[in-house]
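Appendix C reproduces, verbatim, an entry submitted by the partner laboratory led by Prof. M.T., so that reviewers can inspect both the input and the predicted structure.
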Amino acid sequence: MADSADVTHDVVSLLSSPQRDFLLRNNGDQVKIDSLKGKKLGLYFSASWCGPCQTFTPTLVDVYNEVAKKGDFQIVFITADEDDESFNGYFSKMPWLAIPFSDSDTRSRLDELFHVRGIPHLALLDEAGNVVTEDGVDVIREYGVEGYPFTSARIQELRDQEEEARRNQSVRSLLVSPSRDFVISSDGKKTLVSELEGKTVGLYFCVKSFGSCSDFTPKLVEVYEKLKAQGENFEVVLIPLDDDEESFKELLESVPWLSLPFKDKICGKLARYFELSTLPTLVIIGPDGKTLHSNVAEAIEDHGVAAYPFTPEKFAELDEILKAKEAAQTLESILVSDDQDFVIGKDGVKIPVSELKGKVVLLYFSAHWCPPCRAFLPKLIDAYNKIKEKGNALEVVFISSDRDQTSFDEFFAGMPWLALPFGDSRKKFLSRKFRVSGIPMLVAIASSGQTLTTKARDLVSLYGADAYPFTEERIKEIETEQEETAKGWPEKLKHELHEHELVLTRRRVYYCDACNEEGHIWSYYCGDCDFDLHPKCALEKEDKEGSKDDAKEEKSKDEWVCDGEVCKKA
């Protein structure tokens, strides 16, 4: 928790203005600010246009509705919306108070006072006006109602309890709550958690609507039923993360295992406990109640029932099998499936995979609808053409995630290389084999057919055509060349465009704050301000007066960029 515990505020002067001594409810009622004296407060900076805010607000509502019953807690909404209609529509979903939209001066003042650089942002104050934390969003996400009164002491107490629970972990400690000692099945039958003790138990974190879960669930059903048929002492418990009860019911009716009840508070607690970062996740709890593996979903995808009993010894055995397969990998083994032994060129002309043998092949996972894919494509085309001009043996195969044939055709028309046909079943195998979790992704296959790297996109972005043939040896050569290039440059310097000292730093990708162009490898960098200069901009003697202001003018103060769980000011 990033605390500001030494800062104390008077609630009236904090939230009022010379023209206003009240806050609003979403029905238009006014509430005097001095009625909040002696209460714990949450200052919620949010906006209707912000996706992460829309996701977090229902969670905060649930926590507020529980905590507000105590009578000593209130939340005040400080909007970043751009018009009154958007503010009112969003505020209508909130059970707490708000600064009026019209009071932009107070909203701006609070933004600065509480260091709001991204939203959602939640500052929590105690009854005396002391700032408990400005990381309230993280506290609510992680601890919910249990975190109340959200002090550092309370959060530390919960962390200590979690550590104690980890040391004494059992199936009961994981799945039993004060109000429930059972799990359920689709027919409504209740099974005591105590009946799971001594078994190997898989905790299946899933959302029905999530595509990867929909693909994985049938595979897990197949493995589960085979293990049951073999008499193995194995059980699965669904940990539902669905927001929609009908989706949960549909999922539970389609599987043969047990589940926690819909919206059970233990579900979120287990997601935090196991530091859930991806879906699907299947955590394995051994017969002794201890965690055997944090996620065996990929192992089940790759090996099926052979991955059981999911022990370290079994995974060591599977690793050896996988290494042997990789050593024997050929281009045909990854691109040929039954009678699908071709890729296509323009106008759908079929090119036998055998014609690619002896070349370095780049598998390009991409889609027309994906902005980063469209941004990366010109760089890849430029590198491809330069490599081919030198007579090097290279080919690229486009593997599409487009949603329809028309989009595929339009995107592929701008590429000078080959592709798998749209909707080809080999895409699913290749995506799983190379763990494609995001696009664009570029996998380099050596002329021998073995995988060189799954990070070829980064190499093309950094080095362009020079990255060919994408081997470790070639990358080491480039890095040595880059080290040589930097010899003689000052390690630190001062520049007229920035007040702090700039340090020569390796930076993968950045945008120069002088010329506003993309840079790679080396930057003169200020970490405190996230300020970059190309070496050429930092070292050239020409007067660049005004370029900093020009660059700044291109970025509106009101421009926001959303990334993951937060929207930040550009």
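Residues 171-317 form a domain with the Glutaredoxin fold (CATH 3.40.30.10). Additional entries are available on request from the coordinating office.
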